[in-house]
């Protein structure tokens, strides 16, 4: 079936269903002139004034942005500011037209033509006549009464002129000079609403936590209607109450308030989003329904208590929030319900409870899903650092609030962003919102607090402390920890959130931003463009690829807090936890315990085996309190490599899985220790410049001057190009002395050095395991990456597998991760840029017990029996710029006892200094002598000698 036919068929079915409903219940009927979303479009005739495919009539899919259909020119919002009128930029005009016929049941109806969103100035004509004034503003629903403009017995013509640049300069400055992609076209649906002559124009509902209900109705053309009937039911269809309000004193047009009071109502909040269905019907004296509307509502109360906090249903809450653009790479801001749903599920998967709709109202479906799934919403009026003028702003506030007023998920209105606030509009929100939700000023400068809330953007850790201790204002940054590239986001979030959680005057905050705004450029071979450093600011990639900050935020924001970092040697099954929910008792959370054995080096897949899985009794811990869970079955601690605990919320969703190593190397170390006999006893030979240690069927060659490995050679195979190490990551090193020791059949080679690195001892087990023991000494100071490095050609690498934290790379101030065996194919992704292939292969990887590097020359393995090893793989960066940041240690494979933290591009200009974001952002404070042992196995191509003890479940790789 042709795709175009499918699109028209889907729209026709939806239209037919709406007609059937209207016949029986006098609901509002809808006729879609466009498709219903970006995947179900309708073809219109189209003319583009300039740019690509311009100057002639052709066709276009509606809804869409015309740039994504191959028309016009692209621009990122700041382009207008950068280039100005003296350069070519995107200011084209699009002309749309389409013929349509009205169904018979639209006769004698009031007809309203509705545009859900069009960028930017939109002029409409029906059958050659103007439908009304030009609409200015890209993100708002607007409508025209076309009852007297249409034909009921013949074909109609709609013509729409859409100008990207508004004739109102304040609209351009508020919307089109912004720091995000700017488009043109009818990008949300267009449809006709048909209502009976006597009808409900609008309803604004106040449903409070105490069960009080007010419905503010606007009615039109009332003549025969005698009452309003209200019917409240739960979503299972169970009636709560039916009641009527007389219209005997009401005639014509105007407003009416009906009220109700309910007992035992289940309130709405983000943890338990309880909804009800409210049906409203106007009836005549014969009890016939003349017109009926319905809304899903939630009973909840929002209050800002100045000097105290933000309260939902009289419970103090803190926003674990993120900013979210309505955006998809292929279709820009033209979306669908599935995309909205996916974004909400990802936000909730990060254990967040709130979203700010930066920097404009979202699709209606997004808010409906926030209602049903449970997210607190800050719904924002457009205005990116520049505000609408008062005349146009008043129209847009009305359009936004009237569309969105009945969503229980919306708990704040935001009057613009970062200087985009027209304070003359503050009072307008209450005109259309009888619940009088708080209005917020989302600012990036101090001194702009409003309604008792300071939202100042991008504070550092010290100023955060100051705001919480010295102010009577609630501090809730509407943007913080800017996540360009891999910086910010969850890097620094642990310190910020712990301070926010424990501070009375904190209202939480909103990370910038949910996803990279990477656009598929139809003028550049469908490559993704993030406008260099302007748009790759997300915790996720453009197609919602999960970056490291996504996983870390999930742990940091977990409403179940477990403090235990390492299982004690005398572990008795008792683990302290804290309930960081606002409304949920931990007795409603399930805890699943898994005793596991990790897969071993050489096994073909990653992950672990589960020895035993069980549930523990959920403790009775109220929100904000601490308590303990008790694991009864601890006998497996002597058999298991690790312990995992998974918390599952009352809705069956995983909150987080915590993991601890127990004895992860017991089998591996036993195998290494047992392999003391073989056919290749170790030998040492030397000349003037080189010294060779051989055994296990291969030889290691070292430079006598600096003691670094220069060659790994296997006579029957190829060389392994791991060399030029160990080099200490700071300073130079020179060999002072070389020692050779004999112990049975094993000879050891010791290098003593000048400099920080003091000693390196090499041994080869006759079966092939190589042991390196090294010691270094540091004077008291701060060190970004203490440890040793080697070199290896990145071009040879195929994949890596490791037992440690994962699945993504870490930083010192973003060290979260699940302990398991993870694996990753090589990629050259730098966070925030193409190819957006995550997890990144290159980076710092944490808490490593062993790592397997698969190369074109074979595999090599590294094992360490000590805790706390971090491995650096190859060259990468956290932040792009004139000089990529942070600086890397020498070499390209490093074994480290500390790694650097990562700041953000907004770290107050201090070279992205991470220390401004809290204690975890500081350098590693070190002083004294440090030692570590590394075991290597070089499993070169041809005649591999790697054989593991099968009794210890390590497979033979011969």
From TrEMBL:
Its cofactor is Ca(2+). Its EC number is 3.2.1.23. One of its GO terms (molecular function) is hydrolase activity. The keyword Methyltransferase does not apply. Residues 58-196 form the Glycosyl hydrolases family 2 sugar binding domain. Residues 206-300 form the Glycoside hydrolase family 2 immunoglobulin-like beta-sandwich domain. Belongs to the glycosyl hydrolase 2 family. This is Beta-galactosidase. Monomer. It catalyses: Hydrolysis of terminal non-reducing beta-D-galactose residues in beta-D-galactosides. Keywords: Calcium, Glycosidase, Hydrolase. InterPro entries: Bact_Beta-galactosidase, Beta-gal/glucu_dom_sf, Gal_mutarotase_sf_dom, Galactose-bd-like_sf, GH, GH-type_carb-bd, Glyco_hydro_2, Glyco_hydro_2_AS. The keyword Hydrolase applies. Residues 303-523 form the Glycoside hydrolase family 2 catalytic domain.
